[in-house]
TrEMBL record:
Pfam families: Redoxin. Residues 16-182 form the Thioredoxin domain. Coiled coil: none annotated. Residues 1-22 form the signal peptide. It comes from Motiliproteus coralliicola. This is TlpA family protein disulfide reductase.
Length: 199
């Protein structure tokens, strides 16, 4: 059943992803805020994907289990991505912790050096520099529209997604993230302290 659900959600995401940009704007409208995120309920379990931190350190999505992750895909040729990166950097500065991290992954052919040049040009200081293969991520995510963002919970499940630019300085973004973190804490507390059955 879980496999069937995963396949149906991925099919829906794939059908959304095959539209050209003009149709994407119609099928997934965005107001530039987190209010446009599309929830996935129940959360979607995904397979881990390998990518690179910095110049050569191998990492995978599994390495981030235990924390809420905002996974963002961007490219150096994408103007909305470059507009969004500084606000993602400020978001990481404000809320980044052992419980939450912004993981912005560059998915284009310019690789580490190209992405690093844009980090320097934009003054990005708080985001780790990650690069990855568009093909590798395409098995788990629709990667035809940039920028795109996915909230992934501490168990490695996708909670919601938005394939558009977001203004991360909006207070609504902080509220959404804090709500996800509060729900995660509540779920953890319930798991660690189950209610004893009534006699």
């Amino acid at each position: 059943m879980a496999r069937l659900w995963r396949a149906s959600v991925m099919l829906a995401m794939l059908l959304l992803s095959i539209s050209v940009q003009a149709h994407h704007d119609e099928s997934e409208p965005s107001d530039g805020t987190v209010n446009s995120f599309i929830p996935i309920n129940p959360p979607l379990t995904i397979n881990s994907v390998d990518f690179v931190r910095g110049a050569s350190e191998a990492v995978s999505l599994d390495d981030f289990k235990g924390k809420l992750v905002l996974l963002n895909f961007w490219a150096t040729w994408c103007p909305p991505c470059l507009r969004e990166l500084p606000s993602l950097d400020r978001l990481q500065q404000r809320l980044g912790s052992e419980r939450f991290e912004v993981v912005a992954v560059a998915l284009d052919r310019s690789g580490y050096e190209g992405a690093k040049a844009y980090y320097q040009r934009l003054g990005v200081e708080h985001l780790e520099l990650y690069t990855g293969s568009k093909l590798a991520f395409s098995y788990e995510f629709p990667v035809d529209v940039f920028p795109s963002s996915f909230f992934i919970d501490s168990q490695g499940r996708v909670l919601s997604f938005l394939r558009s630019y977001v203004e991360w300085d909006d207070p609504a973004a902080d509220r959404m993230i804090r709500e996800y973190l509060a729900n995660s804490s509540l779920s953890r507390a319930k798991a660690e302290n189950p209610v004893a059955p009534s006699e």
